[in-house]
Write a structure and sequence with these properties.
Pfam families: DoxX_2
Protein name: Novel acetylcholine receptor chaperone
Radius of gyration: 20 Å
Keywords: Chaperone, Cytoplasmic vesicle, Endoplasmic reticulum, Membrane, Peroxisome, Transmembrane, Transmembrane helix
Order of helices and strands: HHHHH
Number of strands: 0
InterPro entries: DoxX (IPR032808), TMEM35A/B (IPR040399)
Number of helices: 5
Oligomer: single chain
Strand content: under 5%
Distance between the termini: 26 Å
Main location: cytoplasm
Shape: elongated
Largest sheet: none
Length: 156
């Protein structure tokens, strides 16, 4: 028995990340936004973590496509797959992508208004995990109480 808040957050966040992932991969939704993202990922690829230490240059085209593909995969998992373990794994994956995006914005000295949506979605994803934890904990406590009372019947 899931929470309506948890289901709503999962579906809405999933749809948003599917939209953003498709926009990063193809100009199908918005040509202008896709073109802008292509330019931005050239800058993000230059500040990719560990690229200097490992002496490895990340091609911006594949960096953008990989991030977009992960967002689509995780978004589909959040929106469509009914298993909470998979949803939580996708949620954690998206949180890690939001941390990477925040790092990239800070590393290229983007103004706060460019970084703010990433931070907002980071906290929304964290909030979804908190709601899942509270719902899961409540369900476990109800099962424990029902088992102690014997077949879920209340004893007086």
């Amino acid at each position: 028995m899931g929470s309506i808040v948890l289901k709503s957050l999962s579906i809405l966040l999933g749809i948003f990340f599917i939209f953003m992932g498709v926009t990063k991969i193809t100009p199908f939704i918005s040509k202008e936004l896709h073109k802008e993202l292509r330019k931005e990922y050239v800058r993000y690829a230059k500040v990719f973590p560990l690229s200097e230490m490992l002496d490895f240059k990340v091609p911006s085209k594949w960096y953008r496509r990989t991030i977009g593909g992960c967002e689509i995969l995780f978004g589909l998992s959040l929106a469509l797959i009914p298993y909470q373990r998979i949803k939580n794994a996708a949620n954690i994956g998206l949180i890690l992508l939001m941390i990477l995006a925040t790092y990239s914005h800070i590393a290229i000295s983007d103004p706060f208004d460019r970084c703010a949506p990433t931070i907002v979605f980071f906290f929304m994803l964290c909030g979804r995990l908190v709601v899942w934890y509270q719902t899961h904990r409540r369900e476990m406590l109800e099962k424990l109480v029902a088992a102690q009372n014997g077949n879920g019947l209340k004893r007086d």
